[in-house]
Structures are given as C-alpha cells and as structure tokens.
Design a protein that fits this description.
Layout (H helix, E strand, L loop, with lengths): L7 E2 L7 E4 L5 H18 L5 E5 L4 E6 L2 E7 L1 H8 L4 H17 L7 E3 L5
Parallel strand pairs: 2-5, 3-6
Antiparallel strand pairs: 1-2, 3-4, 4-5
Helix pairs in contact: 1-3
C-alpha cells in the first residue's frame, strides 16, 4: 500500500488485522494513516469510525461492535507517558485523519477519541 504498512491477520480468516506504525512524526504518521484509510475503505462500505486511543497507542476501525483493523502506534504511548495531553494527541491525529479521509471523497468516516468501554 501507500506507506508500506504490513497488515497481519490474527486468524486464518482475516477477520482481524493488525499493523505496527513506526511513525515518530506527523509526516510518517500521515503516510501510515493513508494506508489504513485505504485498507479500511476497501473492506467496508459504510458506517466507518476511526477511534484514536493514545493511552494504549492504537487506532481502531471500523466500529466499536466490529473491529477489523488495529494500528498500533507506540509513539502515542511514548508521548502520553512523557506528559503530553491525550486530548491534544487525539485532536492532532483527528486533524490528520480528517484530511486523509477527504482525499477519499465522496466516502466519509467519523473520527473520534477512545470508544467507551
């Protein structure tokens, strides 16, 4: 894909796939998010939500009741552990994701912070 993120299936059916982001800056993160958006949009037709959880270092999609894609982003945890405001991290990543999603017009998706338990 665009950023070369490797998606690995957690089972024989590909129901849940996980990728590791090596991003340590916004430009590298954007490239990884371009890949994630393309992969998620290719697999799901509608009702897509990307959830950003900086405290566990993950972005999940496409919805709370059916997660099929998880991108692990250790950089989020590192920043959070170093005292960065988690709401600030969510807002920063949301801005990047929103910009990437616009490129897939007319498709749309919701971008939010962590899903409730």
């Amino acid at each position: 894909m665009l950023a070369g993120v490797q998606w690995e299936s957690t089972d024989n059916f590909g129901n849940l796939v996980i990728a590791q982001s090596g991003a340590r800056d916004d430009a590298a993160l954007r490239a990884d998010l371009e890949d994630m958006v393309a992969v998620v949009f290719a697999r799901h037709e509608e009702d897509i939500t990307f959830s950003i959880d900086p405290q566990v270092g993950q972005i999940l999609a496409p919805r709370p009741s059916m997660v099929t894609h998880i991108m692990n982003v250790p950089w989020f945890v590192e920043r959070s552990d170093a005292g960065a405001d988690t709401h600030g991290i969510v807002n920063e990543v949301k801005k990047i994701l929103d910009a990437v999603i616009v490129e897939f017009h007319p498709r749309s998706a919701v971008v939010t912070g962590p899903w409730p338990d």
